[in-house]
Amino acid sequence: MNILNRYLLREIGLTFIGVTGLLLLIFISGTLVRILVETLEGDYPATIMFALLGLKGAGSLMLVVPIALFISVLLALGRLYHDSEMAAMLACGIGPEQILRSVARVAIFVAVVVAWLALFFSPWAEEMSHQLLDEAASKPEIEGINAGRFNILGDGNYLVYVESLSVDRRSISQLFAHALHQGQEYLVTSSGAREVQDPSGDRYLVLENGFRYEGKAGQSAFNIVQFREHGLLLKERAIVPSKRRRNAISTLTLLASTVPADQAELQWRLAVPISTLLLALLAVPLSRTAPREGRFGRLLAGILLYIVYNNLLSVARSALGKGEVPFWVGTWWVHLLLLAVLFGFLWSQHRLRGPRRGKEVSSAPA
User: Fold this and answer.
1) Which of 68, 197, 199, 294 is the right S-S partner for 19, CB 3.0 to 4.6 Å?
2) Which of 176, 204, 173, 179 lies closest to 191 in space, CA to CA?
3) Cα gap 205→191, rounded to integer Å
4) Closest CA to 162 of 203, 191, 195, 197
5) 203-215 vs 150-153, strand pairing mode
6) pLDDT tens digit sequence for 5-21
7) Going by C-beta distance under 8 Å and a sequence separation of 6 or more, which residues neighbour residue 282?
8) What is the pLDDT of residues 60-69, one digit of tens each?
9) pTM here?
10) Contact at 8 Å (CB) between 229 and 193?
11) How far apart, in whole angstroms, are the C-alpha atoms of residue 2 and residue 84?
């Protein structure tokens, strides 16, 4: 029996690793595209792109792991039913109760890990990403310029090409820029430039000893202005810390808060390990299929059930955050509803396995 249990856990574990990797890759790919777009638009400096991607990807584990475990149990047990291996296990004395206990052990371990991710690690990763953005925003923009190629500065208003940078990356030599200011385009060349910040907090790229060309492409009428110093506005205000979302607030702070939105965030984090355990247990009766039904026969039904459950959690979270329901109601009723569905599946399958009494046939003595 121990060998069969280890075989069952190995099947679930290997499937879990594969599904988790696939879902994480899909999530990270979407996050990478978003970060690349925002980097090209000037929202993120290129120097922190991969660090930011790592923090976002690590923080997403709390969302990926529950659905990955649910799908893994469905696929692993579904394959065993499809290949008649489950029938062989039942013949060896491993009943549905033993299978449920084996899955429960795995689910409890994973739920503990997910609880740590949701309650402590993910808020820390989100806060670190905000600090990374604040630190990058406080640095001079020219520190992120690459010599010998075009760079975007000033929220995308300036396309700048520089020949070289000083060793401390504080000044520029030989600059060419295409600028857009109040709907007007112009070209600027200068022998050097440096970034300065005035007392009000505005940041400028001060160009030295250059020319400014004003006019429209294809037209002969244009102006040439020679200057000793010319400022390009990069930031109109002082750098302020990036606005934190509630998923960056520590769990201890949420526990002490009576604000409905904070309570909703707290229950959302608690819902992650609870849903991990409930979904994994639900996958056991849901994965039961006939040999001819197909390995993926119940996968679609399981995904639809997960979507309904997750949407109900979002609705309950929104209602709690708006103060429409008390804290003791919150999202708990959604978990109780899923628990009722779980018991319904288990009771139904247990009832179907029960012995059926046939009609007694009485025989008259010859």
Assistant:
1) 68
2) 173
3) 13
4) 191
5) unpaired
6) 787 788 888 889 999 99
7) 70, 302, 305, 338, 341, 342, 345
8) 888 899 999 9
9) 0.70
10) no
11) 19
